[in-house]
Specification:
The protein is α+β, with helices and mostly antiparallel strands. The protein is built from 3 helices and 4 strands, in the order ααββββα. It has a 4-stranded antiparallel β-sheet with strand order 1-2-3-4. The longest helix has 14 residues. The protein is globular.
Length: 99
């Protein structure tokens, strides 16, 4: 779905696509941009699911990612983000020094 959004395969107006892309842009540095959105699901007062989805534009390439973590009490969007940044760093796609 994120890939279809990115390439506007849904047929939305270019202005609306640009507005959403601008609103989810988190970091832009050294010719690379990281965009994404987090979320947390709460059930009975406990954070049971956390997610972080997005993409990195690096040169002429775009890399999409989606991370979902689940727990009985301790999952959250911020934890999914932390895990994602660790993975992206291991893959040498994004480092905390770029933030």
């Amino acid at each position: 779905m994120l890939n279809k959004f990115y390439y506007n395969q849904f047929g939305f107006s270019p202005e609306n696509i640009k507005a959403v892309k601008d609103s989810i842009c988190l970091y832009s540095t050294n010719g690379s941009t990281l965009s994404g959105k987090t979320g947390t699901e709460e059930v009975n007062g406990h954070n049971t699911s956390g997610w972080f989805i997005g993409y990195i534009e690096k040169g002429s390439r775009t890399y999409f990612f989606a991370t979902n973590i689940q727990s009985e009490k301790l999952a959250s969007g911020p934890l999914a983000t932390e895990l994602t940044f660790s993975i992206l760093s291991d893959l040498k796609l994004w480092t905390t020094s770029q933030e």
